[in-house]
Amino acid sequence: MNLNTTHVSTIVVGAGQAGLATGFHLSRHDQDFLILDANERIGESWRRRWDSLRLFTPARHSGLPGLANPSPPGAYSSKDEVASYLEGYAAQLGLPVRSGVTVSALARGADGFTLATSDGTFTAENVVVATGANALPSLPSFASQLDAGIRQLHADDYQNPGSVEPGPVLVVGAGTSGAEIALEVAASRPTYLAGRPTAHIPDAIFTLAGGAYWAFVNGVLTLKTPMGRKVASKFHTRGSPLIRISMKQVEAAGVIRLPRLTGVEHGLPVADGATVPPPKTVVWATGYRPDLQWIPDLPRDEFGLPATRRGVVKDIPGLYFVGMPFQFALTSALIGGVGRDADYIARRIADSTAKIGQLPIRRAGAK
Known about the structure:
This protein is of the alpha/beta class. The chain has two domains: about 5-135 and about 290-355, FAD/NAD(P)-binding domain, CATH 3.50.50; about 140-200 and about 240-285, FAD/NAD(P)-binding domain (3-Layer(bba) Sandwich). Helices cover about 25% and strands about 20% of the residues. The strands form six sheets. It has a five-stranded parallel sheet with strand order 4-3-2-8-20, covered by helices on one side. A five-stranded parallel sheet has the order 10-18-11-12-15, covered by helices on one side. The radius of gyration is 21 Å and the shape is globular.
């Protein structure tokens, strides 16, 4: 392990879409920065997702600043195409990414931040956390009460129908991910889908009015507008709308719909007012939560997310976030929407650097 201390003006933690977009804008402002990522390869978190996963928005709205998504404009990029795009993005723009580095602790001192990592100690005046809100699978508290004979896996571990046992499958969570997994599994196994679905956006919206729709969700549904603030207030309890799949398609494939699960009795799942046939496998499509344990004294909101003002942590000067859900807009966590927030944070960092008279003289090298 390298125990030397490396100083960089700004450390970006995470080399996914949020971290890379932040790097692009920091570079435009001639800032001294380094991106650290726990994966050995850029895009690896996408490569690990289930085989048939595709983006929920077309490629024309799924590009980072400075380099368009190479997929056809109306296509929905596969998870491997997204991974390759991110890897190529970092390479073509020459972003300084140091892969295979896990950050285990962050400490704030009088002169800035100290980061303990698997590659030694780093110090910085600014830290941008760009690891997103999907770092850790989220499970309901009663999941541990299920009978030991029922195989359980989170959507994060699902790869294809071969991931589940022969016999009935219960998919929990009726968002887009849960609906797509249920639809796929139903071709070979009796499948049940539990949960309250969100609203469905018809394909025609993207086909016939895609530009106008994107302008609406990206430009109107923001924290600056009354409508956007209303949507934001319900976002974390209702979730994102169904895109590219509808409950009609799911039901037509033979998937049996169930209400929201409310708990476990005698080792078996219980739904709100409905009988749940005993499953052989339960797939939890119940979302994710951010990994923030390494950041002490971080203020959080009622949903456990960082309490920020458009990504700026008021109580911890120099600490910023990019890529959190509805950080500024409905699209803040999406590939096509994260660039605006990254630009905002990069400008804040550039302004603070100028104010204290720190002129960037180098860029820390990747290895």
